[in-house]
Amino acid sequence: MIRPCNREDIEEIWAIVNDGAQAYRGIIPADRWNEPYMTREKLLHEIEDGVAFWGFEQDGALQGVMGVQDVLDATLIRHAYVRTSKRRCGFGGKLLRHLQKLTKRPVLIGTWADAGWAIHFYEKHGFRLAPAGEKDQLLRRYWKVPARQIETSVVLLRGEIPNED
Fold first, then answer.
1. Is residue 137 very low, low, confident or very high in pLDDT (cuts 50, 70, 90)?
2. C-beta of residue 129 within 8 angstroms of C-beta of residue 156
3. What is the pLDDT of residues 39-75, one digit of tens each?
4. In the predicted model, what is the mean pLDDT of residues 132-158?
């Protein structure tokens, strides 16, 4: 079952994000890796900043989460993670399809440039890599990330982003 997450889910969201992020250990540049990958404070800040989490629930527990955030004229998919023990069960794809149905806006996803499996996952679901010349501009326009993260990330998109006026 896919459902919106609420305040009672914070601890479970936090656990899933940090468990799922282990797949990126050694992929994320060492200077961008934290332990835990996301603190509770950072998670709460993301929610306060407008990231709404949705979860895939099975057997009474969340197994995967994805956040959505409307920024300017686009919808961002943020913090997409599935429990390590539940990877390759289709939960991520189901969440992604569900969240895409919630918006008519273009959808953008940022991920680490060296995370080939993540890029492939999003491409398999109809996203395309933003050209190198556009990805820095997109990351600066829609995300609040440091320059080092911009250097080491890619953006995938679905739909057309209007030109900045």
1. very high
2. yes
3. 999 999 999 999 999 999 999 999 999 999 999 999 9
4. 94
Neighbours of 125 (CB within 10 A): 15
CATH fold group of domain 2-158:
Aminopeptidase (3.40.630)
CA 65 from chain centre, in angstroms, equals: 9
Q: What pLDDT, on a 0 to 100 scale, did the predictor assign at position 99?
A: 97
Closest to 9 in 3D by CA, of 39, 43, 38 = 43
d(C-alpha 111, C-alpha 118), whole Å: 7
One-letter identity of residue 75: T
Q: Residue 78 and residue 38: Cα distance in Å, rounded? A: 13
Dist. CA 21–CA 82, nearest whole Å: 9
Size (the chain), residues: 165
Per DSSP, helices labelled H in the chain are 10-20, 40-48, 91-101, 116-124, 132-142, 147-151
Contact 41, 125 (CB under 8 A): no
Single out the residue of 138, 109, 113 nearest to residue 32, CA to CA: 113
